[in-house]
Design a protein that fits this description.
The chain has helices at 3-27, 33-54, 63-89, 92-123. It has 124 residues and is an all-alpha fold. Helix 1 (3-27) packs antiparallel against helix 2 and helix 2 (33-54) runs antiparallel to helix 3 (63-89).
Length: 124
């Protein structure tokens, strides 16, 4: 099996296991519901950062593709870390709005850069 597939499956199984463990801890009275949400959402942000970090390492046949991967990797890694940080430390209302905004901004930066590369490639 491919390393990327194994890593992706590990993240998926890990987050499901973390959610089940946190739910069990909540049912036992060890943590409250807010902590369960924050732990799972923080792990989701770290997963986005991990995938963003992996993007530039993917094999892309052209120099344009490698540039897009680098920008996409950085933007998604940073937005995932902001997302996780907000869920760890900010009030829930701010974490929801700011976290979603960070992910949307990371996607917008990646898409905008890809479109600018496409425009430059057509002009060249």
């Amino acid at each position: 099996m491919n390393r990327d597939v194994i890593g992706s499956l590990a993240w998926g199984v890990g987050i499901v296991g973390l959610a089940l463990g946190a739910t069990f801890a909540r049912d036992q009275g060890l943590v409250d519901g807010d902590m369960v949400t924050r732990v799972v959402m923080g792990a989701t942000g770290l997963m986005v950062a991990w995938f963003g970090n992996r993007m530039p390492k993917a094999v892309v046949p052209s120099a344009w593709g490698r540039q897009a991967n680098r920008i996409g990797g950085w933007s998604m890694a940073l937005s995932g870390l902001v997302y996780a940080g907000l869920w760890a430390f900010a009030p829930t209302d701010i974490a929801v709005i700011g976290g979603c905004g960070a992910i949307i901004l990371g996607i917008a930066v990646t898409l905008g850069y890809c479109l600018s590369l496409r425009t430059r490639a057509k002009a060249a």
